[in-house]
From TrEMBL:
Protein name per the record: Nickel import system ATP-binding protein NikD
UniProt cross-references to NCBIfam families, sorted A to Z: oligo_HPY
One cellular component (GO) term of this entry: plasma membrane
Record has ATP-binding as a keyword: yes
Alphabetical UniProt keywords: ATP-binding, Cell membrane, Ion transport, Membrane, Nucleotide-binding, Translocase, Transport
Quaternary structure annotation from Swiss-Prot or TrEMBL: The complex is composed of two ATP-binding proteins (NikD and NikE), two transmembrane proteins (NikB and NikC) and a solute-binding protein (NikA).
Keyword Translocase attached: yes
Membrane topology (UniProt): Peripheral membrane protein
Recorded GO MF terms: ABC-type nickel transporter activity; ATP binding
Amino acid sequence: MSEPLLTVENLKTQFFTEEGTVRAVDGVNFEVNEGELVGLVGESGAGKSVAAQSIMRLVEEPGRIVDGTVTFDGKKLVDIQETPDGRMEPSDEMLTNREMREQIRGREIAIVFQDPMESLNPVFKVGDQLREFIELNREVGAAEAKDIAVDMLREVGIPEPAIRYDDYPHEFSGGMRQRVLIAMALACEPRLIIADEPTTALDVTVEGQILDLVSDLQERYDTAFLWVTHDMGVVAEICDRVNVMYLGEVVEEAEVDNMFHDTKHPYTEALLRSMPRPDRSVEALDPIKGVMPEAINPPSGCRFHTRCPEAREACKEFHPQFRDASDAGEAPHAVSCIKYEDVGYEHSEPLDTEATGAFAGGLAEMRGADGADAAGVPGGDTDE
Ligand SMILES: Nc1ncnc2c1ncn2[C@@H]1O[C@H](COP(=O)(O)OP(=O)(O)OP(=O)(O)O)[C@@H](O)[C@H]1O
Ligand code: NI
């Protein structure tokens, strides 16, 4: 096997706020291979966007990447190492801001966001914005850049591209604007496109069309994608492999088919049960219990224990290791859950939370017991 195109190792990004340190991305590992479409999925607040921004070094104040390494094609986009006197500092190998700007962003890696109106300037024609972007990023003159721009518009399915070239962003529908952004991302022939919920604001039909377009372009250009979404349906439709994030951590990673047919982490199961499916009525949906705890003060042990239907006492104590739990001869399938470790889960008592079957033990009793428990477990398990 060749080296992955992108490797993210132990990435940690924090926001230093007045309320405390937000551990938005807290030791994340994943990979994207050449030409692969990899999903990053999880509920709102899981840290998906911050992870995506960290790869591109686009995290803004009061946020900072405090640890980890991001390697792209052998280059260190991020490389934070401990100095001899114990401080965490960028290594000599880490690219400079200028190298990031001139070599990586928009050239090797492009990023597409949810809201095209934020990325397109309303006062300039759509085609001109695309042309200018191409001129800036490729060694071509204005005329050639315009030809490429029209070609790209056609490529992403804009009808009559030479005419629509002269339209302003507001004259395009949301789906068409998103197509333009994909054209812009592709125009520089990047090796990786990071897409942060680019279809979330679109209606289902238009979303389907954009996903078809992406699958199609991915095959044609062999571009790798990191696709950020909260929607397992989107993952099922386009991704080869998926990483599930919960509260700053990746908790499960597998090929998409394996993830759906041999789900290992209770959080992934809960996410799948909460997802609308054609073979299931809306009433049969089973939303995940409780709310995601604050990333400022994550629960002890397994971070999902406050909402997990299978949570036991041991889950409060042991922080699970993220490791391969595939059976012999099967494709790698990593999970971080103590059910797959040897730390006494089987003999441990079920936790008495809203999410578990044991939730009948008396709310008052539980509250009484909880009052004495100051081990950093917020009130997530007593949510009404
Ligand atoms: N500028 C900021 N200042 C403080 N905290 C932030 C900032 N940006 C993000 N966070 C926090 O970082 C955590 C991760 O946020 P992130 O936007 O990555 O989540 P997400 O998984 O992308 O969710 P969504 O699906 O809502 O986009 C959250 O707890 C969020 O509140
Ligand atoms: Ni996000």
